[in-house]
């Protein structure tokens, strides 16, 4: 399903600030080394994340689903000097690419990558997060939502990607689309948060804990 008219999507992207040079290099490295790069969050979601970090003054960020590091670089690039971004990835193939970027300053002192299953890693993380970006396996979104809520406090932001899942959430009965739809319902039924679902790319939901 075409969620946003193609020409409108291109037009809005053309009036969205380009990524910093290092992130453009990461995109090129991903395209050179991988057959598929459609998992990259993309310029508009990337800019949204960057702006949310800046506007909220977030110091501690959790990035669930690193892939090659696009969202991590976009957010870590605007964290304060004492800021920290933890990013979780289970596929070591992507690490070969992300490491080359995460090892450069100022990212080196801000980004901590944890390799492993995020479902097992998140409950063991200490402290709370000012901003969490969820972009890992969709079937587990309801579980992620519950564990992430335990790591957030008043004022925290949670951003979830792919919340429209190519429009399939409209008739969701099973599978990933049902898990995503269920997550939107869980968020809706949580009295302690405000949620805004944006028809941006594949659907982006922004949540703020009251
Ligand atoms: C859509 S991509 C993330 C894109 C990334 N945020 C970006 O901006 O480019 C999803 C990533 O989550 C990883 N992933 C999926 N399930 C996971 C899990 N249970 N634990 C850790 N990583 C997982 C996948 O290997 C994949 O790299």
UniProtKB/TrEMBL annotation:
The keyword Chaperone does not apply. InterPro entries: Cation-dep_OMT (IPR050362), SAM-dependent_MTases_sf (IPR029063), SAM_O-MeTrfase (IPR002935). GO terms for biological process: methylation. The keyword S-adenosyl-L-methionine applies. Keywords: Methyltransferase, S-adenosyl-L-methionine, Transferase. CDD domains: AdoMet_MTases. The lineage of its organism: Bacteria, Pseudomonadati, Balneolota, Balneolia, Balneolales. This is O-methyltransferase. Gene3D superfamilies: Vaccinia Virus protein VP39. One of its GO terms (molecular function) is O-methyltransferase activity. It holds the Pfam family Methyltransf_3.
